[in-house]
Amino acid sequence: MAKNLVIVESPAKARTLLKILGSNYNLKASLGHIRDLPRSELGVDVENGFVPRYVVPKAKNKTVNDLKKAVKNASTVYLATDPDREGEAIAWHLVEVTKTGRKPYRRVVFHEITSEAVKQAFQHPRAIDMQLVNAQQARRVLDRLVGYKLSPLLWKKVRRGLSAGRVQSAAVKIVVDREREIQDFVAVEYWPIEAELAKKGDKVPFRAMLISLMDGAKLDIPDEQKASRVKKELEQGRYRVYRVSTKKANRQPAPPFITSTLQQEAWRKLHFTAKQTMAIAQQLYEGLPVGAEGSVGLITYMRTDSTRVAASAIAETRDYIGQKYGAKYLPSQARIFRKTVRGAQEAHEAIRPTGISREPALIKKYLTASQARLYDLIWKRMVASQMAAAIFDNTTVDIEAKCPETDYLLRVASSVNVFPGFIVLYSEGKDEADEEGKKDALPLLNKNEDLELLGIYLEQRFTQPPPRFTEASLVKTLEQWGIGRPSTYAPTLSTIQDREYVTRVRGSFQPTELGVLVNDLLNQHFADIMDIQFTASMEEKLDDIAKKNRNWASVVQDFYTPFDKDLVNAFERMEKVKLPVELTDEVCPKCGKPLAIKMGRYGKFLACTGYPECKYTQSYQIKTGVKCPECGHDLVERVSKKKRVFYGCGNYPECKFAVFYKPLPDPCPKCGGLLTQYMGRYARCTKCNYKGKLERDK
Predict the structure, then answer these.
(1) Range of the domain at 342
(2) Which of 25, 301, 501, 560 is catalytic?
(3) With 90 as the cut, is the pLDDT of residue 433 above it?
(4) Quick check: helix, strand or coil at residue 203?
(5) HSE of 13 in the Cβ direction (CA atoms, 13 Å)?
């Protein structure tokens, strides 16, 4: 008897599903997309409704043949690809490529790989949703039109190897605009003044900040001369408590993660890039072997913009909180979060553990360090989201300073946690330092109580420019503007770095000279593509296609008509830009002229500046300035086939020494071995078990 066939994207997902479905099902993996637009040509018929021409890449021929054979021998084919537009499109492509005769195909959708969710999905299969497929096709065609039409322009006018895109160019513009804000920022001097005070007879001091004149008039202190004059007055003043206000404040927990907030928090707390976060989350979702349980999907689907949580998961979480922390940590009613992201697909769930009983400590031994850390973050965020609010006593004290010439108003505030609530488990990170500073407990102060002055302190400060974007804050900004979708944040951040439009400096994005140049050229000739609001509105139109409110070909046509006109004008009017030659300190071994860094089809390489007379080239290596501990040659930065950066000996293949963490110039203080930079903050020896904090973080 023929078995049912289930097709998924990855072998890991197939293994997890096989454990749930049993021996009546045959599981096969498509290994991602099996069909796409051709790489060597546009592949879109712009004259006839923008019909895409899909091809099966040569690398996928064996997979397709295996799938066709499996389909032929199956009774029913179930398409269990991911529960989003991309997954729907993969399912449709699988049907188009493998269908033979009248073989029945069924689409099954689940947001977590658990026995209950999977069996429920197989009991209620459906047909492929062509509106979702068309929304994905529209996105793919738009991106192909922009990429394939703009790239030749940039190659001709700037240099080979460049690219542009609806989302990536908008992201670069955001970074460039912020850099210009920073450059144009004019710092303004100001002098904050604090009075150190204490209750009469009580030597426990506290500091109050000068905020205004007593009548409420604004007080500007722009220079040291004014600050010194006010200080002298305050030193002669008499101080009393003018007003005391105490309020209880509840701090509510953050909702469970969506894609963007997971990427933000993983950067803040774990220093994972968006790309790294999504790769690890994919592993947790598709399933990992967990002891006697076997392969288990540990979290729900990780590409989502909805904070909705299934009622069963909320009930399980609340049961856990009641048993683990007690009734006082459990709100009387379940907390429901409503996400306001534009275009959020509410049918999806938030990112959460598939089983709250799988505490991070219990399964840590089955996971890699990175998997365990990300799972711990997701688990804590979900549990905390259903815990009681944290309660604070917020006290604000206004203090009057009666001085010989003027009366001043000072203020001090404290915030004391009187019930920890959810923060006993988890507290959300911040992108920038808390400007409010610490709010320590104050002594008990009463209205009209006299205070003793212990000292006046003033400090010169300057207003600060807006900060550069980090991985976390750039993803947050893209989401707030409605640019891109959960599936595009990570690849967008990777692409703008791979193209060398932005670089990361001390954890923050800074545009390169090339990035600014390309941004300005595109801004000048393609105003629509570079307009943030236009890009966001295009995302809304793609969402409308999925909701059956728009025709996908009409959306593409409305975009392409003015874009094609701009493209023709740009080819005629855009001036060719000559980038400065980037020389190195190396010389050509053939003719002795300097070698320059060039960009080719496969990335950077070194070429002789004597070209075309001398055509010498060599591979480009980023030297670390650290010597190989095995042979003494330079250690250089390399990139693996999986695009992971590592550091290997420049004398490869004679010497095959390599490490994944950045080498440090100082030797290990314990054994003299090679130190590497571990997790951004630590130095770890490759020879012994030494681990220490880097000097700048001490």
Answers:
(1) 259-385
(2) 301
(3) no
(4) coil
(5) 26
